[in-house]
């Protein structure tokens, strides 16, 4: 059944598709296969729809969000877009604090959904957006900050949704690979799979940005999301813009999948593992396609040489 | 055995502004000791008084987070690349 009462009800149950060309061994006695979970097939086109809807439902259930409320959230884009769509349909106002070095498409989408954007300085990246949002929360105590980095409903959405979907579609799963931002996807899916699949490996890919993004004044200004529990993970990779772009283009070239740049980073980590699996072992590696490439066209990620594209991304928050 | 260590902007006060320096050691702990010999004070920014990696410092050997490969006991070999980065938010 693919009929829904509203757009929000169409969230989740996204396709899991094989990568017959990029997988190290698709066929044979000991296949090592890659599977892409197409989270761009969510209502606003990203995996963040899951966390956004779960956080809003949770806040409605416990009475923090009531009609006419204003939501406040630090976001580099996708979470804000997801929250803004749900807020629009449910009659909430929304204020997003976003670093100024994010793509123009994300800003336009947020504005289209009725969000008010407060820009935080590029230097300091998302850390600064989080700090600014916390200050605003003190100034405007009637605004409701859902706070994706520490909201248990974020990880729970993946524990109850993404995780069970992946296991249903790939009972032979050996590895799950996703991006590490708020850590909600990896914590939620990771905990679910660890309960159900002995020896499953949970692998994180995090973006390595240009230097500007790490422009803290002090190490103590660093940020680790409250949701993060490193005991859920098996391995964690830092992926450069160049490698992320290279894999993003590989996905288009070999599999026809037009994904955003963070998906390239995740595929890079997935391939790093898959390519080292011994000849006599079998593996089924599921990874997350976080969003489509549409929101990143203006960054020049898909044109020119890889080196040129990587240079254009310098200083941009691309995940 | 020379290993390239990439230093984040915030710690370059210890390396005379250099983005990348060389250090020696067959484990990460040994490498950081060697680094501190040439760039005094940097160890105190990477490692806590209790001897663990600072919560807001991430260290990668060949792009993999050392907290999952043995932490300070992570073995190193010639040609490895070590990257130090502060922890930042995503999302």
Helix content of chain B: 10-25%
The SSE string of chain B, one letter per element, is EEHHEEE
Largest sheet entry of chain B: 5 strands, mixed
Tell me the radius of gyration of chain B.
12 Å
Mean pLDDT of chain B: 94
**Beta-strand level of the residues of chain A, as a percent range?**
15-25%
SSE string of chain A:
EEHEHEHEHEHEHEEHHEH
Overall spatial form of chain A? globular
Strand order of the largest sheet of chain B: 2-1-5-3-4
Question: Could you explain how this protein is built, in words?
Answer:
The complex is a heterodimer of chains A (319) and B (91). With 319 residues, chain A is α/β, with parallel strands linked by helices. Helices cover 37% and strands 17% of the residues of chain A. In chain A, the strands form two sheets. A six-stranded mixed sheet of chain A has the order 1-2-10-7-8-9. Chain A has a four-stranded parallel sheet with strand order 5-4-3-6, sandwiched between helices. In chain A, strand 3, helix 2 (78-90) and strand 4 form a beta-alpha-beta unit. The longest helix of chain A is centred in the middle third of the chain and has 18 residues, at 152-169. Chain A is globular and about 60 Å long. Chain A starts with 15 loop residues before the first strand and ends in a 6-residue tail after the last helix. The model of chain A has no long low-confidence stretch (mean pLDDT 94). With 91 residues, chain B is an alpha+beta fold. Chain B contains two helices and five strands. Chain B starts with a strand and ends in a 5-residue tail after the last strand. The relative contact order of chain B is 0.24. The mean pLDDT of chain B is 94. Classes of the chains: A alpha/beta (319), B alpha+beta (91). The A-B interface holds A 48, 74-76, 78-79, 125-127, 129-130, 148-149, 179-182, 204, 206-209, 211, 213-225, 230, 233-240, 272, 319 and B 8-11, 45, 54-58, 60, 63-65, 67-69, 83, 85-91.
């Amino acid at each position: 059944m693919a009929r829904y009462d509203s757009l929000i009800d169409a969230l989740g149950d996204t396709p899991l598709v094989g990568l017959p060309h990029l997988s190290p061994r698709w066929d044979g006695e000991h296949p090592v296969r890659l599977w892409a979970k197409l989270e761009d097939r969510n209502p606003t086109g990203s995996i963040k729809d899951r966390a956004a809807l779960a956080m809003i439902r949770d806040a409605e259930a416990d009475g923090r969000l009531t009609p006419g409320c204003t939501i406040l959230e630090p976001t580099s884009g996708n979470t804000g877009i997801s929250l803004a769509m749900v807020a629009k349909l449910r009659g909430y106002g929304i204020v997003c604090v976003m670093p100024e070095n994010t793509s123009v498409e994300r800003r336009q989408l947020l504005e289209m959904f009725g969000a008010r954007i407060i820009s935080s300085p590029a230097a300091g990246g998302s850390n600064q957006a989080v700090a600014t949002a916390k200050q605003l929360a003190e100034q405007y105590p009637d605004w409701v900050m859902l706070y994706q980095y520490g909201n248990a409903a974020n990880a729970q959405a993946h524990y109850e949704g993404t995780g069970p979907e992946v296991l249903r579609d790939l009972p032979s799963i050996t590895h799950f690979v996703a991006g590490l931002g708020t850590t909600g996807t990896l914590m939620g899916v990771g905990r679910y799979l660890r309960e159900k699949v002995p020896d499953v490996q949970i692998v994180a890919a995090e973006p390595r940005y240009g230097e500007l993004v790490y422009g803290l004044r002090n190490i103590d200004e660093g940020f680790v999301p409250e949701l993060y529990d490193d005991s859920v993970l098996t391995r964690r990779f830092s992926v450069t813009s160049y490698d992320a772009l290279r894999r993003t283009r590989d996905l288009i070239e070999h599999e026809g999948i037009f994904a955003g740049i963070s998906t390239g980073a995740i595929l890079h980590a997935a391939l790093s593992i898959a390519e080292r699996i011994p000849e006599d072992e079998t593996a089924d590696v599921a990874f997350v396609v976080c969003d489509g490439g549409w929101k990143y066209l203006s960054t020049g990620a898909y044109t020119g040489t890889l080196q040129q594209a990587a240079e254009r991304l310098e200083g941009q928050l691309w995940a | 055995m020379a290993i390239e260590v990439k230093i984040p902007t915030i710690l370059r006060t210890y390396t005379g502004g250099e983005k990348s320096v060389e250090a020696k050691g067959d484990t990460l702990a040994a490498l950081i000791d060697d680094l501190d010999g040439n760039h005094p004070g940097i160890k105190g920014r990477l490692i806590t008084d209790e001897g663990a990696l600072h919560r807001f410092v991430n260290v990668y050997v060949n792009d993999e987070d050392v907290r999952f490969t043995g932490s300070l006991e992570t073995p190193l070999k010639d040609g490895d690349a070590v990257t130090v980065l502060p922890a930042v938010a995503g999302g």
